[in-house]
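We now fix the convention by which a protein and its fold are recorded. Think of the row as the fold of the chain written in a discrete alphabet. Here is one such record, which you should read through line by line.
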Amino acid sequence: MLPVMSAELLAISFALLSAISWGAGDFSGGVASRRLNPYLIALLVHTTGLLLFTMLAALRGEAFQAQDVPWSVGAGLAGCVGLVFLYRAFETGQMGLAAPIAGVVGAGLAALVGLALEGFPAPLQLLGFGVGLLGVWLAARPEGGSGPSRGLSYAFLAGLGFGGYFALIHQVEGLFWPSAIAKLTATTLMLGLVGWLGLLRREAGLSANLGLVGLAGLLDALGNVLFLVAAQAGRLDVAAVISSLYPAFTALLAWGLLREHLSRSQTLGVLFSLAAIALIASG
């Protein structure tokens, strides 16, 4: 019984670290997005992850497993499509409403896949899923924002893409090579989009912000690896829901470093997120 509990707690710990890393990465990317086009930032973030994962796979001497390729390509495609639709939702207005919708849909889809593949979790963990999804919504929801966004359909499609990434990357057996293949797929697609839009030719201030974008890329890549380790060590639904608590950490960083006002909704979201972690861990 003890090894099973230890593996479950290990998975929860890695998923929590993934949420922290993704939250910090979104904070870095969000600061950079005030100065650069978000599509270009997405390309550079994916490229950073591709280079990092390829280097780590080579240094570790990780065996390349051909059966991981279709899952990795599918995960990279789903993640990239999710990101593109998320930015489309941002373009239509109410960014703070689109983000939690995508987060909730993505975590919810992965949780449903986890339930189908692995059965129902413990009752406290199931309650923690609901509390966690509510925390994601509250932490990323704008103050006073209650009406539907015009980009609601885009945000929903973004969530399906992110949920697809969670479910597909969970099927691989490797670590760094599958992540590298997923990033290669995403980088190729984003490079085509950025090239088609001509952003590389007309974007000003790129060199001055490469450090910030590079940090966002490293944190995003670290979050991907930590999520994959968590999903392989424990249940997919547990890893997906806890990892999706990242908006709470983004809000905390914005409050602590930029002195941005933390709304009542965001404060409640952080508290609900912490409660969800406790419930899932206690289950």
